[in-house]
Amino acid sequence: IITISILFSCKNEANKVETTGAEVKNETTVKYPSDVIPFMNKWKILLGDGTYVDSLVNYQKDDFFYIENDGQTDWVVYKTPNSGITSKTSSNTRTELGEKKHWIPEEGGKLTGTLKVQHVSITGHANVSSSFSVVVGQIHSDEGHENEPLKIFYKKFPGHTKGSVFWNYEINTEGDNSGRWDYSTAVWGYDFSVKGPDETTNPEEPKDGIALGEEFSYEVNVHKGIMYLTFTSEGHDTKTFTKSLIKSDFSAQQAIPQQIIDVYASRRTPGVEREIAYAGEINYFKQGAYNQANIKTGSETYDGDIAKQYANGSYAEVWFKEATVGESKTPKQ
User: Fold this and answer.
1) CA 23 and chain centroid, separation
2) 152: exposed, middle or buried (C-beta count within 10 Å: 0-12, 13-18, 19+)?
3) Beta-carbon neighbour count of residue 197 at 10 Å?
4) N or C: lower Cβ tally within 10 Å for the chain?
5) Which helix (H) or strand (E) holds 67?
């Protein structure tokens, strides 16, 4: 009797075929995102093809939410095209987790992630701020204007080796939401406001940027209404930021930053924020790949054909190897 074992691997599957005499036995071992990052029971997900799933333990879907191994480590992959089916409040596709638990800033919560961005759209207009970018972590409001007190971006212009990591704070607009805006802060590289002078000309490459495939980590700790952000990456300075979510810095016209006037004044009159910002308002975390490239940014969408978009660089792809979500922690002094 001769026994032969052959191992095959394809994305997240290892297929073991055993032959003993005339008997053939197939065993398939599937590795799921919940095997790599075991907090998936705390989340639901919307995929770039419109698939919605609220039970993520032992769930994966090829081409959107699955496992890859880089030769050393298993990573959870979030992949989404420039055009697909998305949520009712956005024109951007996503393969993105949404936290099931909701909280107000005074209660708070904590989200961490260690990741590398593998791809952003290679097409778009260089003078549109959202082009070539993906959001890899968020705080999202679930009432009122449903604005976003935090979006963590990665952006890389075509032809550049290094990209930028920055975070945006969207005001909780006083009155109606027509005057809403995002204030952007650079972590490494540029902030959201830096763009090309025209559709085809990029700005200079950022000096302290993050390359595609370069690992970095973030921690978002909302404690007693204050948001504490920490960003780390080997070979780069650690960056920390603090922002109140319960008392506005932007409740008067004279407090509107020059960045906002420069970016938004040609499009609309920038509004002011409620004095209490997001105090008492229900929020939740999001994590994954929220693609900011779409037809409005001049990015190729191939009439929504996802296979063509993937084949021609019209997608965002983000890999996470570690992440946590839970209660806030008293920040270190």
Assistant:
1) 48
2) buried
3) 10
4) C
5) strand 65-69
Q: Which residues are registered as beta bridge partners of 152? A: 137, 167
Q: Quick one: pLDDT at residue 262?
A: 93
Backbone region of residue 277 per phi and psi (left: phi > 0; alpha: psi in -120 to 50; beta: other values): left
Q: How far apart are alpha carbons 169 and 183 in whole angstroms?
A: 5
Mean pLDDT by 10 residues, the chain (333 residues): 38 46 58 97 97 98 98 98 85 96 98 98 97 98 97 98 98 97 98 97 97 98 98 98 98 97 90 98 98 96 96 98 98 84
Q: Phi first, then psi: give them for residue 246, nearest 5 degrees.
A: -125, 0
Q: Count of alpha carbons within 13 Å of 202, Cβ hemisphere only? A: 18
Residue type at position 237 = D
User: Counting beta carbons within 10 angstroms of the beta carbon of residue 3, is it exposed (0 to 12), middle (13 to 18) or buried (19 or more)?
Assistant: exposed
Q: Is the pTM of this model over 0.90?
A: yes
Contacts of 10 (CB under 8 A, 6+ apart): none
Task: State the Cα–Cα distance between residues 333 and 330, nearest whole angstrom.
Answer: 9
Burial of 10 by CB count in 10 Å (0-12 exposed, 13-18 middle, 19+ buried)?
exposed
Residue type for 319, please? W
Bridge partners of 291, per DSSP, are 134
DSSP strand pairing (94-99 vs 43-46) = antiparallel
Q: In whole angstroms, give the CA distance from residue 114 to residue 322.
A: 5
Three-state SS at 53: strand
Q: Are 226 and 203 in contact, with CB atoms under 8 Å apart?
A: no
* 179 φ/ψ sector (left φ>0, alpha ψ -120 to 50, else beta): alpha
Tokens 């000096």 found at: 207
CA atoms within 13 Å, Cβ hemisphere of 264: 20
